[in-house]
Structure formats: structure tokens, C-alpha cells
Design brief:
241 residues; seven-stranded mixed sheet; 9 helices; 7 strands; 37% helix; globular
Length: 241
């Protein structure tokens, strides 16, 4: 699959250059294989509303890789991608930064089974795909406060995301949330929750990805998260801290 290089990679390569990254031909082949597996599986289950190649490149691949703007990924850190869905940002990050030790977590088992197929097809090492809700996984000592970095592209307000993600981050680590450009009010509203969970908003980094206004909210873990968090399923989204 994707042995042929019959895709126009101009946009992809330009985006990679803009990010200051170096990607090999083999890594581009891995992205093409991932793209073909994604669009094929998408015919039978809902993985993404975006399927046109250049759009996937921009809105999934390059957006995922933009994390390099705020984080050094050229080291063997343990990264948890919570609510990974179709594998974003985790799979693109693992392709380009193979040294990271990656955990992909999602509440839908069908997605996890798909991601295990992708991991096998792309020969990705040091990757684990876990089927679990965040509330359950955070109670497992193998995962709670064990990650250097937790990332999420999930659509939820920052208070809710922080309650789900910060329990997985070790003290001294970071939770980085992928957000749209306008986040000031959301960040302000989340400050109480972030502090309660042991974190501190260290940076809001804004940038443009072509016409899209994007931002990263970088939260440092300063102290342990109280055992009461995250609360039981559904509560963090219905009643944000």
C-alpha cells in the first residue's frame, strides 16, 4: 500500500519545511499508507469528515505536527494522546519523531482496533493503543501521573480537558491542548480548574496554519492531582470545575 508516490506532496513538503522539520521518503510513504488506510476504513466507520488528500495533509497531518512549535519531541519522552480518535495527533507525531514512547487512548474500541492495524502496517515501535475512558484509565497506576506529556485534539472546553488530561501527567510534565485561535476567554475560565488539578497555564501560543487560526495552550504540572479527579463519566463535561 502507498508504494507508489502518485500523490502531489507539494503542499505537504512546504508545510514540513515551514515547521522546520526533516521528513524522509520512507516517512512520507508511511503517511501515504496511513492516509489510504484512513480513507478506506472511513467507508465503513466514521473516523473523519475530512477525506480529500490535501485537506487531510493540512488539517490532520500538519496540524498534528505543529506541536513541534512548542515542544521538543526529539527525545524518548512518554506521550499520551487522549481521545485520539483516528490517531491524531499521535500517529503523525510518532512517524516524524520515532523516539517518543506513545500511548493512544480512546473510548471507542473500533477506533483502537483500526489504530492497531495502522501501527502494524507502519511498523511503529513503542506504541500502545488502549481502549478505555479517561475516567477509568486515570485510576490505573500504570497510567496515572506516568506521562511526560499529554496531548489532546478533542473538542471540549479547557476546564473539562484539563480534568481528563492532567491526572496522566507526572509532576514536572506538561499537558498541551490543541485549540482554535480565539482561546483567551476559555483559558481565563479554566484557570481555577487547572490550579485545582495541580497545573499552571504556562503559555498560549498562537499561529496560523494556512488560513486557519490555531493555538496551543501549554499547561505545566506543578503538583499531584487530587485522587478525586477526574470525576465519574459525564460529570466533567456537564459540570466543569
Amino acid at each position: 500500500m502507498a508504494d507508489r508516490m502518485d500523490y502531489d506532496l507539494t503542499k505537504f513538503k512546504n508545510g514540513i519545511k515551514e515547521l522546520g522539520l526533516s521528513v524522509t521518503e520512507e516517512q512520507y510513504r508511511q503517511f501515504l499508507t496511513f492516509y489510504e488506510m484512513l480513507t478506506e476504513k472511513n467507508k465503513v466507520m466514521n473516523l473523519t469528515a475530512i477525506t480529500e488528500f490535501d485537506e487531510v495533509v493540512e488539517k490532520h497531518f500538519l496540524d498534528s505536527l505543529s506541536l513541534c512549535r512548542v515542544c521538543d519531541l526529539n527525545r524518548g519522552i512518554r506521550v499520551l494522546d487522549l481521545g485520539t480518535g483516528a490517531g491524531f495527533p499521535g500517529i503523525p507525531l510518532k512517524i516524524v519523531f520515532p523516539e517518543i514512547r506513545l500511548i493512544l487512548a480512546d473510548s471507542l474500541n473500533k477506533r483502537i482496533l483500526f489504530l492497531r492495524e495502522v501501527m502494524e502496517e507502519l511498523h511503529l515501535k513503542d506504541v500502545e493503543a488502549v481502549h478505555a475512558r479517561a475516567e477509568e484509565l486515570a485510576g490505573n497506576r500504570l497510567y496515572r501521573e506516568q506521562s511526560d506529556l499529554c496531548v489532546s485534539r478533542a473538542v471540549a472546553n479547557l476546564s473539562t480537558l484539563s480534568e481528563y488530561c492532567l491526572p496522566f501527567v507526572k509532576v514536572g510534565g506538561e499537558f498541551i491542548s490543541y485549540k482554535s485561535g480565539e482561546v483567551e476567554e476559555e483559558v481565563s475560565q479554566a484557570e481555577h480548574a487547572v490550579a485545582l488539578l495541580g497545573g499552571n497555564v504556562a503559555e498560549v501560543y498562537k499561529f496560523h496554519l494556512n488560513e486557519q487560526s490555531r493555538s496551543f495552550v501549554r499547561i505545566e504540572k506543578k503538583k499531584k492531582t487530587p485522587r478525586a479527579y477526574p470525576r465519574k463519566a459525564g460529570t466533567p463535561s456537564k459540570f466543569p470545575l
